[in-house]
């Protein structure tokens, strides 16, 4: 019978997508998984994986079958306790998700975020002017980290002291979507004080009156949320808003240094900057993966998935699927890169993407005015993470205009 045949013919892989070897160079493994079939059984973890654009996209769109409330990491919240109270937007399904999402969609809409443009551009100009004077800088610490750590917490409205806790917390959050491996354990080494600091910044009393954080509490006053829910959504800002853009800006710098003719094209035509960031997100996705959990048995390309099973969606592999993209392994700032899966899609599609785009546009517009080229002298060192792809250090001598 067809269903028996399908079960027998499920593709199987022994790959560990959270091993150091895989995380250092995932692309050959992505290709192997795409070629193995529309869905692959990863026997080491007892989970399904999807690496083709079509199946990743379809799964993200079908939230009724591929749910988020059992967690969007490897851990199944129905079987083991989550390491922190679940996010009420990321790790939630409708109807809870619908209510929380509506609030953040409004606060983070492109029009609402555009109000921040002048400030973000001024801060980018100041930072880049300082770096150009230095002649040589670390693309990660001095730019990819320094800029989001200044503008985003300022925009949320949290005080200046203790911001060194934000990156360690992001590392905890994004490593915790993977298995309890060495990367997870390292990230959790100082978890207690870091969590306490984060939670202390999430109350109404800790927030500036004119920031994005206080706008969430205004939704409490309007009867849309409970007070504790508003605090949890501020936690979501502080969980999702820093590392994602740090890794994204770092990857963008890496691409511009690695492909200097592409940087020249941007300098000559700054109108390309916006599309170039989309191509960075496609080509070197800062967020590589998210999980879903099946709510019922479902057929994927003739393979039967059972109910309550974890599915690992390789956003970054979908972004290089030759079934979807011409020359997928070529970095080309002129291509139409929208349709990449790095922001996800469907009801959980990145709600903060206008902030991410604003940060990258401000930084790369400032760089385009002042930097002729970046020279990658040494080998950049990667920072491994169970979910994120990016760099620990990018030594970049630069040639000023
Ligand atoms: C998209 C994202 C990543 C990490 C954490 C959260 C969201 C959250 O809502 O806490």
Write structural notes for this entry.
- This protein is α+β, with helices and mostly antiparallel strands and 401 residues long.
- Helix 7 (117-134) runs antiparallel to helix 8 (139-156) and helix 12 (212-221) runs antiparallel to helix 13 (227-240).
- The relative contact order is 0.19.
- It has a single domain (2-400), classed as Cytochrome p450, CATH 1.10.630.10.
- The radius of gyration is 21 Å and the shape is globular.
- It has helices at residues 2-8, 20-24, 27-36, 53-61, 96-107, 110-114, 117-134, 139-156, 166-175, 182-187, 191-200, 212-221, 227-240, 243-258, 260-268, 273-283, 315-318, 353-370; strands at residues 12-13, 40-42, 47-50, 66-67, 136-138, 289-294, 298-300, 303-305, 310-314, 371-374, 381-382, 391-393, 395-400.
- The termini are far apart.
- The protein is built from 18 helices and 13 strands.
- The chain binds 3-methylbenzoic acid (OVV).
- The site of 3-methylbenzoic acid (OVV) has 8 residues, from helix 13.
């Amino acid at each position: 019978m067809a269903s028996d045949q399908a079960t027998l013919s499920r593709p199987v892989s022994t790959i560990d997508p959270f091993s150091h070897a895989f995380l250092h160079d995932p692309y050959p493994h992505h290709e192997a998984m795409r070629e193995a079939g529309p869905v692959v059984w990863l026997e080491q973890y007892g989970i399904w994986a999807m690496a083709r654009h079509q199946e990743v996209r379809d799964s993200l769109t079908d939230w009724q079958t591929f749910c988020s409330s059992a967690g969007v990491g490897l851990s199944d919240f129905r079987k083991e306790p989550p390491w922190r109270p679940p996010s009420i937007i990321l790790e939630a399904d409708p109807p809870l998700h619908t209510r929380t999402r509506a609030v953040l969609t409004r606060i983070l809409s492109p029009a609402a975020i555009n109000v921040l443009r002048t400030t973000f551009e001024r801060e980018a100009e100041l930072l880049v002017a300082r770096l150009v004077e230095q002649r040589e800088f670390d693309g990660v610490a001095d730019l990819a980290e320094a800029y989001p750590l200044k503008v985003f917490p300022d925009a949320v409205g949290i005080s200046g002291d203790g911001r060194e806790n934000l990156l360690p917390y992001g590392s905890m959050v994004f490593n915790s979507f993977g298995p309890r491996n060495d990367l997870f354990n390292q990230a959790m080494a100082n978890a207690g004080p870091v969590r306490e600091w984060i939670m202390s910044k999430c109350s109404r009393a800790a927030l500036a009156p004119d920031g994005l954080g206080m706008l969430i509490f205004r939704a409490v006053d309007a009867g849309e949320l409970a007070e504790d829910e508003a605090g949890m959504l501020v936690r979501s800002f502080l969980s999702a808003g820093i590392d994602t853009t740090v890794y994204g800006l770092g990857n963008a710098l890496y691409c511009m240094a690695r492909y200097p003719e592409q940087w020249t094209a941007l300098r000559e035509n700054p109108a390309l900057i916006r599309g170039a960031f989309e191509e960075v997100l496609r080509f070197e996705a800062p967020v590589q993966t998210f999980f879903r959990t099946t709510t019922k048995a479902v057929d994927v390309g003739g393979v039967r998935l059972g109910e309550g099973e974890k599915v690992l969606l390789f956003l970054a592999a979908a972004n290089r699927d030759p079934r979807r993209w011409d020359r997928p392994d070529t970095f080309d700032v002129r291509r139409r890169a929208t349709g990449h899966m790095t922001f996800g899609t469907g009801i959980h599609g990145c709600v903060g993407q206008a902030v991410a785009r604003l940060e990258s546009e401000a930084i790369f517009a400032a760089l385009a005015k002042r930097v002729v080229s970046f020279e990658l002298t040494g080998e950049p060192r990667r920072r491994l993470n169970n979910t994120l792809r990016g760099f620990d250090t990018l030594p970049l001598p630069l040639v000023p205009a």
